[in-house]
Design a protein that fits this description.
With 365 residues, this protein is of the alpha/beta class. It has 11 helices and 22 strands. The site of flavin-adenine dinucleotide (FAD) has 30 residues, from strand 1, helix 3, helix 10 and strand 21.
């Protein structure tokens, strides 16, 4: 999105060969991660989530399919996996976040998540076989899309009701803090929605270890809770290249100016998306709004102007409340979210966005 927006704003400079935009990627295709939730529940097919980068990039952006292994801010160069090196004048770090499956002993063996393509497919397969018992959801923080585990519970509840299997399955959701969600208004809203759906909620639940053989989760709080199907969101970390380059904190999050989105302590370098250590949700919409600010600031710098403090922490999230209803929240650094009652119309907006996403990646909406 950043590369495409830059290509549009700087088309004259690119045509005059004064500016070159290179996008380094470690994958051939871009994945629409929010779709993994639907894939895991058997509500969407995986093919719809992938597009080759080259199909998404506008003319004027060079795609370099070669993972970055080290970023050297002194020489302003990036070492690539192939051994090649690339120099830069301006840098945008958008290396995202990933689940850390090894943070909790027993996690890999025991848990089902939907935060990667492979895991979403495994969860889909095993969920189809799961016909009786307790589904326990455990959550580690931080993780991207803080509302996705709630959505999973609401959607799975409705799926079971549709299949007339709900009476055979107990749904238990846990959260590490003293409420059901990190955002207080969302936690309050979830309480009522869980009660209506018959989903049990447990707070102050920080998994310490999982015993896959006996199907028991032990917590830092001293509880031992059994499960038949363990749905889980592991805590996330920043990209390995950030840590290898000594740029972020020990978990790989980048110190970022919360208004200009500049990488703290480095001129001409910006951070977009999950990689930033900001007091705001790690979400695609966050990256979307941030990308507008970063593009404007880089264009300003290229034109000899100073970066502006333009980002106000804006985030927009849909929250699926079942299979045919959803609500949505908007919030920023100063204004908390206010979830309203889910409606069918908001659900269809979300469905429409799932398709429109490919236009937004091209920087068109
Ligand atoms: C199940 C699920 C549901 C979600 N639902 C929503 C939702 O409803 N709404 C919402 O707003 N957000 C949602 N999200 C979150 C959203 O997908 C992420 O927050 C968003 O993708 C973050 O964008 P990003 O650009 O920071 O990182 P990413 O999209 O993860 O992109 C980072 C890219 O950097 C690449 N990379 C990493 N290291 C290197 C390297 N060394 N060299 C080259 N390339 C590298 C990665 O391969 C990746 O392609 C969801 C996520 C999941 C998993």
């Amino acid at each position: 999105m950043v590369a495409n927006r830059l290509a549009r704003h700087l088309s004259t400079e690119i045509a005059a060969k004064e500016v070159q935009i290179n996008m380094i990627s470690d994958t051939e295709s871009h994945i629409y991660q929010p779709g993994l939730l639907y894939v895991a529940l058997g509500l969407a097919e995986p093919d719809s989530l992938f597009r080759k980068h080259e199909r998404l990039l506008l003319p004027g952006v060079n795609l370099i399919h070669d993972p970055a292994v080290k970023i050297d801010m002194d020489s302003r160069s990036i070492k690539l996996n192939s051994g090649k090196s690339m120099e830069f004048d301006y840098l945008v770090l958008a290396t995202g976040s990933h689940p850390d499956f090894d943070d909790i002993p027993g996690f890999r063996e025991a848990a089902h998540t939907f935060y990667t393509y492979e895991e979403a497919m495994r969860t889909r397969r095993d969920l189809e076989e799961f016909k009786q018992g307790k589904l326990l959801m455990i959550i580690g923080v931080p993780h991207k899309c803080p509302v996705a585990p709630l959505e999973f519970m609401f959607m799975y509840d409705k799926l079971l009701r549709q299949r007339q299997e709900r009476d055979n399955i107990e749904l238990v959701y846990t959260y590490p803090l003293g409420r059901l969600h990190s955002l207080e208004p969302v936690a309050e809203w979830s309480e009522g929605a869980f009660e209506t759906a018959g989903i049990a909620g447990e707070t102050f639940f920080n998994p310490e270890e999982i015993d896959p053989k006996n199907k028991v989760v032990s917590t830092l709080e001293g509880d031992e809770v059994s499960y038949d199907f363990l749905a889980a969101i592991p805590p996330h970390k920043g990209a390995a290249v950030i840590r290898a380059s000594g740029l972020g904190d020990p978990d790989g999050w980048l110190p970022t100016n919360k208004y200009t989105l500049q990488l703290e302590g480095h001129e001409g370098a910006y951070v977009v998306g999950d990689a930033a250590a900001l007091p705001i949700s790690k979400a695609g919409s966050t990256a979307h709004y941030e990308s507008e600010v970063v593009v404007r600031n880089i264009v300003r710098e290229i034109h000899g102007e100073k970066p502006m403090p333009l980002y106000d922490g804006k985030v927009y999230c849909f929250i699926e409340g079942g299979l045919q209803e959803a609500t949505h929240i908007t919030f920023d650094y100063n204004n908390p979210p206010k979830p309203s009652e889910p409606t069918e119309m908001v659900h269809w907006f979300k469905m429409a966005f799932n398709r429109m996403y490919w236009l937004s990646v091209r920087g068109l909406v």
